[in-house]
Amino acid sequence: MKICIPTMGYRGIYEMVGEHFGKVPTYTIIDTETNEIKVIENTSEHRGGVGLPPELIKKAGADAILVSGLGLRALEIFKKLGIKVYTGARGTVEETLAMFKQGKLAIAGADDACREHEHHSIQSKHHSC
């Protein structure tokens, strides 16, 4: 299974999880079968590029994404693309993966989606919509 985590840079397993899933600079992709870790740049239109973040993540081959939070539109696009979305990601990629493996992240539903866009502090521990 390939898991995508929105991240703040290129440090792989040690990178911090980004709270703005669509606007993060990178996505870290972890293959849980081979333990291969790949970091891709967010080249979506949210960062001045082309396409939407879910499309970019689908192209990278992800089966699931672990996020702090995301909007309803993104959630719906992920659903159409067949990518499972889990919420509650925080800390580093390593910490988030551990929480996922322990079953501590929940599958996202419409009630989990952000309704309004607010700015978040990088230092904040939890995503708040």
Indicate the topology.
Layout: E1 2-7, E2 26-31, E3 37-41, H1 53-59, E4 64-67, H2 72-81, E5 84-87, H3 93-101, E6 106-107
Parallel strand pairs: 1-4, 4-5
Antiparallel strand pairs: 1-2, 2-3, 5-6
Helix pairs in contact: 1-2
Describe the structure.
Mean pLDDT is 87; it is low at 118-129. It is built from three helices and six strands, in the order βββαβαβαβ. The protein has a six-stranded mixed β-sheet with strand order 3-2-1-4-5-6, sandwiched between helices. The chain has 129 residues and is of the alpha/beta class. Helix content is 20%, strand content 21%.
- The number of distinct helices, counting runs of at least 4 residues, comes to 3
Would you identify the regions where 5 or more consecutive residues have pLDDT less than 50?
118-129
State mean pLDDT (0 to 100 scale).
Answer: 87
How is the largest sheet built, in terms of strand order? Answer: 3-2-1-4-5-6
The end-to-end distance, rounded to whole angstroms, is 29 Å
Sheet bearing the most strands, described? 6 strands, mixed
Helix content: 10-25%
Give helix and strand order, one letter per element, not per position.
EEEHEHEHE
Beta percentage is: 15-25%
